[in-house]
Fold this protein.
Amino acid sequence: MNFTLILFIVLAVVAVLSALGLLVSRNAVYAALFLVLNFAAVAVFYLLLGAPFIAIVQVTVYAGAIMVLFLFVIMLLGAEKLPKAQGLPWQRPLAIGLVAVLAAEALFLLFQRLQLTTSLTNPSAELNSVEALKLLGTTLFSDYLLPFEVTSILLLVAMIGAIVLTKKEKGEAEQ
Amino acid sequence: MTNMVPLSYYLGISAVLFVMGALGVLIRRNPLIIFMSIELMLNSANLAFLAFARGFSVTNGAVNLSGQIFVFFVMTVAAAEVAVGLALIVVIFRTKHSIDVDLMSSLKG
């Protein structure tokens, strides 16, 4: 048991428990906060995997911007709790059964078929360095320049789409 | 002895998080929580991506960071998706005065 493995196990427990909290919490605000905890745990996973830039982006974009947007919408709509309604009676057991099948398949493929015994023993110093960050920026702005620009257009389109969707049409306000 | 966690552990936790996200999409009725579960699934896919990137990025001293860059793109797409999706939820709430997905069975407002 080395330090990294202990850290991994603790983080895995936190991630799985917070995901479980997201699934079972009645209040949507609590679910959002559980998701923030999960994102933080996954960000530390990213640090362990030698991706400091992605970890910081995870914290700022996901746990910061996106979850603030979620909390805004939850409180704007007052949708913390939905009133009790009659759903399909067989939906929940069926969903749990199907998901159990999916989990069994995924874990079977991971541990039986793929035989992934690659241990991550390559030196993390090469990835957790300023040189790696420089290389990341250079690669992003040279080899991946076109996808980067397409992504910026995608963000612009999403922004305009959100504004157009939520804008009240003329004459609709009086109704 | 820098990092002795096997790659399959990361893939295992990624699979578990993905399956929990899928369960959340299937059993919850609040579309906001369904959306959060989708974010959870995207996040677990990113985790698998970075695990593979970590496992295979350093070959003979040369570092290849394409996996991390792809995760960056996935994150931006997720941000765009959240903006549009939450706008849609707001519009549906405005027309139907409820966001329960069981009541969204008709497309006509």
